[in-house]
Amino acid sequence: MTTTSADPVTFEDALERYDPVMGMEVHVELNTASKMFCGCSTVFGADPNTQVCPVCLGLPGALPVVNARAIESAIKIGLALNCSIAPWCRFARKNYFYPDMPKNFQTSQYDEPIAYSGWTEIEVDGVSYRIEIERAHMEEDTGKSLHVGGATGRIHGASHSLVDYNRAGIPLIEIVTKPIEGTGAKSPEVARAYVAHLRELVLGLGVSDVRMEQGSMRCDVNLSLRPIGVTTLGTRSETKNVNSLRSVERAVRHEIGRHAAVLDGGNRIVQETRHWHEDTGVTTAGREKSDAEDYRYFPEPDLVPVAPSREWVEALRAQLPEPPSLHRARLQADWAFSDLEMRDVAGAGAMNLVAETVAAGAAPQAAKKWWLSELARYANEHDIAIDDVPMSPEQVAQVQGLLDAGRINDKLARQVFDGVLAGEGTPEEVVARRGLEVVSDDSALGDAVDRAIEANPDVAAKIAAGKHAAAGALIGAVMKEMRGRADAGRVRELILARLG
Amino acid sequence: MSGSNAEISRDDVAHLANLARIDLTEDELERLAPQLSVILESVATVAQVAANDIPPMSHAVPLSNVFRPDEVRPSLTPEQALAAAPQVDQQRFAVPRILGEEA
Amino acid sequence: MTDLTRLTAAALADAFAAREVSAVEATQAHLDRIAAVDSDVHAFLHVDVDGALATARAVDDARAGGTAVHPLAGVPIAVKDLLATNGLPTTCGSKILQGWIPPYDATVVARLKVAGLPILGKTNMDEFAMGSSTEHSAYGPTRNPWDLGRIPGGSGGGSAAAVAAYETPLAVGTDTGGSIRQPGAVTGTVGVKPTYGGVSRYGLVALASSLDQAGPVTRTVLDAALLHQLIGGHDPLDSTSIDSPVPAVVEATRRADVSGMRIGVIAELGGEGYQPGVRARFDDVVALLSKAGADVVEVSCPSFDYALAAYYLILPSEASSNLAKFDAMRYGLRVAPDGVEVPSAEEVMSASRAAGFGDEVKRRIILGTYALSSGYYDAYYGSAQKVRTLIARDFDAAFEEVDVLVSPTAPTTAFRFGDKLDDPLAMYLNDIATIPANLAGVPGLSVPSGLADEDGLPVGVQLLAPALAEDRLYNVAAAIEAMLAEQWGGPLLAQAPELEVRT
Known about the structure:
The complex is a heterotrimer. Chain B is mostly helical. Chain B has a domain at 10-49. In chain B, 36% of the residues lie in helices and 9% in strands. Chain B has a two-stranded antiparallel sheet with strand order 2-3. In chain B, helix 1 packs across helix 2 (26-43). The relative contact order of chain B is 0.08. Chains in contact: A-B, A-C, B-C. At the B-C interface, helix 1, helix 2, helix 3 and strand 3 of B face helix 10, helix 11, helix 12, helix 13 and helix 15 of C.
């Protein structure tokens, strides 16, 4: 388990001599209520082995029955990726032994995937790339192992492992691209953009939560290099479980450098799986692809063929949301955002959040402002996805509503965000509890203005003499006395009314 | 794996036993190789009539599209699930250390 | 007083309905019989005295309270140890599952429980149903009640012997290549393999998923029909279960009329390799059917010559995958390899499977692993599946000509223990006549046809019909049964030697 020892080659160096070819295999866990082949719940985070039954535990005698919604979700994903939907296909058993796989075969699809030959388009720095989709097929997830006795909970050095089968049997769709060629130095970004695009697309379909940090979207990156000008493919490595967008980009970059170093040294790339190490940003050798890996696929005799009718497929097609590119174009027009603004929103992963906030009544610019400032900062500080920020788009719109009504000002709004994020309640409740509402009572404000004028006769004189710009100092004094709970505009009016 | 005409060597059997996760003794390997060769020679006759234009039959019933609604059904209790486990720890199946892949 | 163990299930049901006998009495009588003879027969791997009596009591209470119960409620039954029984050990005749108690019921078992049939226990079998003699049971063979030195057939020898020895009137078996029918033939009992998909496979520990089917094991055709009616029918837990009503088998049994029926003798089954006594009794039955007004013709099913070969590729292939789950991780035997300090999961799996599986199971797993290997799949598994198509086509063509096909059930009568143990191919030949039905998914039934002249042992005749046409099988079988009983002056089993009763 060591990295191949060869002089490191920089990414830029590698690309002068080699042409990278990528292949992406993305597993998407569907958000069906029950598992692929049994009625056990799929809720994430349950106590170990509480969501298991004879079927997903692989008990002798138990039999699988296919979840109809999983098939529909698979077809929707296939259609969204412009795939052909197989008029007839079967499940197959992929036979290999592993303790987290209860039957010691995975019920999957082999040479008859439900969706095949599709494509999708992504954009990197204004350049669009067409990614060809080889297939999207259905399969089941495995259990989860906890390795005990090793120093870090990793597999190596562990004395034994503890297996929880709650995840076993959750439906997965594996989406496999054809070789992605010609992306050159943009390869890492293209890989990342593809995964981000898939994520957005699947999220739009509503068939998966696609939370990479929870493992409901997992990515394997195949990479090979070939000398520039050569058309045959080089030997590839398969880096498993690259589970964040950033890691996808880093892993591709790392593997390009590693391959180049091996090839430069006159050595051959070993066809193997590689493990990605998030912390160090390198991959290490895993299992070598060999004769021992003979999966002995055969049609699953316990399940009958799936033969989606044309009518069924068309009915599902009619349910598809508009494709992300069209959706985004429509939103951009609706919101009157510039390309740059749009890219910022997309980059923050806040497209849907902004849309929902606008739908809840906020102006697009305001919605964007809050999600890209207060809330993005909160997500960053807490190291969570922006979707997981504990504040809903409706609540963001409510804060903006308070602002628009003049009941709070910009500065107070930030305190309202703090309160809601701290779990103090709804924006209204936070305003009430923290006493954040601006004082709109003119007599109270007037008193404060009078005191400010009295305390600052020089400034008052300047204003009275027509130097209205000096009003700022008096406004500051009033705001200070009111502890921010005043509308600065109104304060200015009152000052000018008295001195003007 | 070498050998046409359904000859299975001792090494072939060893390889298959490894794939099938069965420790075979030297004795068993020696005994199984000729037995399997005889059986294979006999069953290989299927190839004589398996013409290209004959569709393979994987299922004995002509059914398709058998689905169940996406509804949650009661699971076993963890006690039931773990009752037969050779070893249990922290409400999980305790298994010997796992080689190879990172899970 | 009548010996309740000699009554058929139908007769017991009548006696219950007439309040002449209680379910507890009937159940106790069978438990006593098991205690008296099973040390010799060894049909049972596990007897559930308390559970069976509790069910019987509940049925008696229900009847006494005027609650409507199933007609078979209170009729004791034995279940092959291949079916999962909640709370009762289920070993499949294997050491690897020693002590395993399933947390759930097979659908067939659930239906028995709902109907109130006391489950006497679990019957012996070849390990994971691989065999034709029960000699491959890890818990020792079952002995044929006709001759304790001979095999009772297999894999369901335990169920057939239990029924033949009057330990139970009813039993459930499973049939992947003849495991219900061949034991039926060699023990002088009735065995039915329903249409594939006709009886739920949920909870039936899979040997070969595309071939397995559970079915009735009884002493009479009517009892088989009654049990078939109870366990058959659609099950949403089995994707291969057929969603249509159970054929009207009880009605067909009561008809027992073959006049005008077209019956085909399969040319490929019954010639060379079949014992003279088997052929003679088969010819007798064919003559009887003609006499009773059936139109008997010979039909040819040329692809049946390849059935055995296809079967011994498909079965081991599917079995190698089905039996992978026995890996010592979640249930069953766990054995540490010798001389390894901290063994890995892989090493423990291999050591446990080596210790837990018997020779025949290992042989078939290795064979199946080979047949599915890349590079060999097309030549072996792929070709076998094509042969399957050819066999189904042969059946289709034959059923264009005739209503029912007939053949001897097994090529020989019960052989002596050890005779074929060292020759797997010779053992496999026992199933030569029964296998085609499994490959094509059509139903088959074995009914006693007499005793072979040379050894005085039971012989069976097999009837085959198109998918979901079980009614034809029961009709013809009931007619054969009635005609032969008239000839013999009673059922064939009445000619069996009495077993020594031990206390």
